[in-house]
From TrEMBL:
SUPFAM superfamilies: SpoIIaa-like. InterPro entries: Bact_StressResp_Reg, RsbRD_N_dom, STAS_dom, STAS_dom_sf. PANTHER family: RSBT ANTAGONIST PROTEIN RSBS-RELATED (PTHR33745), RSBT CO-ANTAGONIST PROTEIN RSBRC (PTHR33745:SF3). Keywords: Phosphoprotein. This is Anti-sigma-factor antagonist. Signal peptide: none annotated. Residues 162-273 form the STAS domain. It comes from the Archaea.
């Protein structure tokens, strides 16, 4: 780790405006510049703010150790910028280029001021490279984590959309399931069903698995979990959509729903639910 005092802070401080202008030209000329997502004025504001924060942090004399308190404002700014760009639709490369494009302007200014001293020039270029590489990698990592968070949230939202709970009658809910029922989706199904039982004060819930391609041991266990959770909320559950193929598979696997009422179709389940609720439909 480089600990000696670097001339980089003087180069930044004495040439702040020139470096900023060169940096802006580098970013705007780059193929990664997304003028559809970020205006030139917004880019200039972000670049100028980061330059100011870097100069302030560098005044401590340490320009390569990002763990010191002086660099926290810089990292916080980059983290916020990365998260914003992730949400806006920037790619990892486009986000990281925000930092890496600063290399050329800084190196050019170093060459201008230290060109006659090859040893000092090489040393300062190395220090600047370490600094900008660390900041660039931090930016890319933060961006990636933000993208992963966005993807997880979108996946959960899609799961919620794919498991609608429908109130078809006073006190009666229907939960039509389509596709596989894994552990993560089971959690969403239970949360949605239980919340709707509370919100609608329903006493009967029909879980229709007509759209579930196959019922194996795992799916059956997840269905039983959902039924058990609903029972704890005071609701009676009915499972409908037990097709002949599914019934045969369940017998073969030794899977049983216990005392849970099952019906071959949603129509039969509705008829049974109406009878249990004392509802006569004419």
């Amino acid at each position: 780790m480089v600990k000696q005092k670097s001339k980089l802070i003087d180069i930044f401080t004495n040439n702040e405006q020139e470096i900023l202008e060169d940096w802006m030209r580098e970013q705007i000329a780059s193929i990664t510049y997304r003028k559809d997502l970020l205006t030139e004025a917004e880019l200039r504001t972000q670049s100028a703010e980061l330059m100011g924060l870097m100069i302030a942090a560098s005044r401590s004399g340490n320009v390569t150790d990002m763990t010191t308190p002086e660099w926290k404002p810089v990292l916080d700014f980059l983290a916020a910028t990365s998260k914003t760009r992730a949400a806006q639709g920037f790619t990892t490369q486009e986000t990281a280029t925000f930092i890496f494009s600063l290399k050329q302007p800084v190196f050019a200014r170093m060459k201008s001021e230290l060109g006659t001293n090859a040893s000092a020039l090489a040393e300062e270029i190395w220090i600047a490279t370490v600094l900008l590489d660390k900041l660039g990698l931090f930016t890319a990592e933060t961006y990636q984590k933000s993208r992963e968070d966005i993807i997880r949230r979108q996946q959960r939202e899609l799961l919620e959309l794919s498991t609608p709970v429908i109130k078809i009658w006073e006190g009666i809910l229907v939960l039509p399931l389509i596709g596989t029922l894994d552990d993560s989706r089971t959690q969403v199904v239970m949360e949605n069903l239980l919340q709707n039982i509370v919100d609608t004060n329903s006493s009967i819930a029909i879980i229709d698995i007509t759209g579930v391609p196959e019922v194996d041991t795992l799916v059956a266990q997840n269905l039983i979990k959902t039924v058990s959770a609903a029972r704890l909320m005071g609701a009676h559950c009915i499972i409908s959509g037990i097709r002949p193929q599914i019934a045969q598979t369940m017998v073969h696997l030794g899977v049983a729903f216990g005392d849970v009422v099952t019906k071959s179709s949603l129509a039969d389940a509705l008829k049974y639910a109406f009878q249990q609720a004392g509802i006569t439909v004419t």
